[in-house]
Structures are given as structure tokens and as C-alpha cells.
Amino acid sequence: MSDDDWSAVPLRDAGVVPHDATAQEARHSSVPSASAPAAGPVQGRPAPQYGEYAPAGWVNPVLAEQERSDRAAATAGQGSPAASTTRSASGPRPAPAAAKRLGASPGDLFLTLMLLGLGLWTVVRYFRTGLVATDVRRAIEQQSTTLSDPSALTTAANVNLVGALAILVLTVAWSVGRLRAGKRSAWVPVLGGVLATVFSTVVFMIVLSHDPAFAAWWAQRTG
């Protein structure tokens, strides 16, 4: 084999180191390149580059900040009213109370409502003051005498309407309050009806007492 052969093999003789580059065996260089990271301890915990493993002790700052924010939010939420409200809402709720019965009994409730309806119907009839005055005049003329001034009965009918309305409102309010409290209430409309009757009688008697013809008949009767 000649010396000019391209495939020259490095000399294997001991103690002989060839200096000709063409006579050296091709192998990886043992000298570290300038771009390779230097060996030694990590200074400042540098972030790993793409494709590299994280050095020992390195912590991702993004994840660390996120964990810190989560812990701060959880700590603040434990003492906030919203968190307390949420815990209260998610807790067991008490069982709803049973519906309270109206009136002392079903019969009492029915009788109370029926009497209130009767009183309402009576007051509605009082709105026709002209008809009320005419009925009163006819009743008095059939039983006693002809009135000197029948028009005064219209004034009495108007006053009677106002009084009956006031008594009805008070009776309904009182009855409803007792019904909701579970108390006997049927006697309240009865009392309201009695008061309305007494009020109406007094109003018409006052007006009739000022009528000359009726006053003369009454004096003659009571003589």
C-alpha cells in the first residue's frame, strides 16, 4: 500500500503519535464546543431551554404565582359574607312549617265568611240612597202618617251609607285578623251587623224627629 492512499490508517505503534491530519482516525472531538453549556452547579436556577430537562431546584414562576393567587383567594373567601352565605345556602334547610288553619274550625270559617258576605250585600244596597229613602217613607206612611218633608230621608240615607261602610271595613279587618290567628270569628260579623242596624235606626229617627207631621203623630201615640 502506498503512502498516497486516501484510506491511510493511523499508526498503531506504541509511542508514536502521527502529526499528519490525514493519518488520524475519524472520531468525535473530546473538546467541548463553545455553544455547549459549561458543567458545574446551576447559578440562579436558569429556565430550561426547549428540549432540555429542568435543572435541580428550578420552579416554574408562572405555576408558583398561580398557586400563590389561589391560596390568597381561598383564604380571603373563607371570611367573606358571600362564602358564609354560600355555605349556609348549601347546608340543610329546615322543613317548611305546616300551613296555619284559618279560623277555629272549618264551620267557624264558613259562617264568618257567609256573614261578611251578607253584610257586604246589605251595604251595596245602601248605595241606592234614593231607593232606601223611598222604602223608609213608604213604611212610615203605612204605619203612621204622611211626612211633611220626605226629602229629608235622602240625607239620612247618605249618612247611613257612610256609617255602614265604616262599620263594614272595621268588621272585615277584625274578622280576618281573628281568622288568621285561629280564633273564633263568627261573632264579629254578627256584632258588626248589630252596630250597623243601631246606627241606621238612630240616623233615621233623628231626621224623622224634625218632621212636624211625624213628631205630632209620635206625641199623640206616646200621649
Query: What is the string of SSEs from the N terminus onward?
Result: HHHHHHH
Average pLDDT number: 76
- C-alpha termini separation: 178 Å
DSSP strand tally: 0
The rounded Rg comes to 56 Å
Poorly predicted segments: 5-9, 15-43
Portion of residues in beta strands equals under 5%
**SS-based structural class?**
mainly alpha
What percentage of residues falls in helices of 4 or more residues? 55-70%
Global shape: rod-shaped
Major sheet: none
| Multimeric state | single chain
Total number of helical segments?
A: 7
Task: Give a structural overview.
- It is a single chain.
- By secondary structure, this protein is mostly helical.
- Helix content is 57%, strand content 0%.
- The chain contains seven helices and no strands.
- The chain has helices at residues 61-78, 81-90, 106-126, 129-143, 152-180, 187-209, 212-222.
- Helix 3 (106-126) runs parallel beside helix 6 (187-209) and helix 5 runs antiparallel to helix 6 (187-209).
- The radius of gyration is 56 Å and the shape is rod-shaped.
Set out the fold topology.
Layout: H1 61-78, H2 81-90, H3 106-126, H4 129-143, H5 152-180, H6 187-209, H7 212-222
Helix pairs in contact: 3-5, 3-6, 4-5, 5-6
Task: Please name the defining characteristics of this protein.
single chain, mainly alpha
